[in-house]
Structure formats: structure tokens, C-alpha cells
Amino acid sequence: MTKGSARFNYYLNKVQLLFDKASKQKNPALWLYNNDARTPLFMLEGLAKMYTQIHNKKKFTKLKEHFK
Questions:
Q1: Is this prediction's pTM over 0.85?
Q2: Mean pLDDT of 37-60
Q3: Which residues contact 48 (CB under 8 A, 6 or more apart)?
Q4: What is the pLDDT of residue 24?
Q5: What count of other Cβ atoms lies within 10 Å of the Cβ of residue 18?
């Protein structure tokens, strides 16, 4: 695994765990808000923004918008 994909995978795994736990809650949106789901999503958006300047601009711009 490359360092670049490992950076994304780290935060994607965090988001996946949060979504899995939230799916079992009565109010998933509130649970995600109270359990800091915004931080890993913000980090993914920041990574994508940084990578638009380094790598495939079209691909990472789409990812950035998706994470937003």
C-alpha cells in the first residue's frame, strides 16, 4: 500500500466504524454529531484538496466534493 492511499484509508476506516455504530442508534445523525464524525470527514476533504494540487486534479476534486 502506498503512503497516499494509507492516509485516506486511515480516515475512511474511522468513518466506516462511526457509520456502523450509528446505524444501530435511534437517531444516527445526532449520534454521529455527538461522536465527532465531522473530524475524519474534514480530514478526508483536506487530503483530497491537497492531492488536487499534486496528482490527478479531476479525480481528487470529485473526491473532495464527495467528502464535503
A1: no
A2: 80
A3: 60, 61, 63, 64, 67
A4: 94
A5: 19
Q: How far apart are CA 49 and CA 61, in angstroms?
A: 7
Question: What are the cell numbers at 59?
Answer: 479525480
Give the separation between CA 47 and CA 30, rounded to whole angstroms: 26
Mean per-residue pLDDT of the chain: 83
Residue 23, SS3 per DSSP: coil
- Cell numbers for 60, please give them: 481528487
User: d(Cα 17, Cα 58) in Å, to the nearest integer?
Assistant: 28
CA 43 vs CA 3, 12, 18, 20, 29: distances in Å:
15, 10, 15, 19, 19
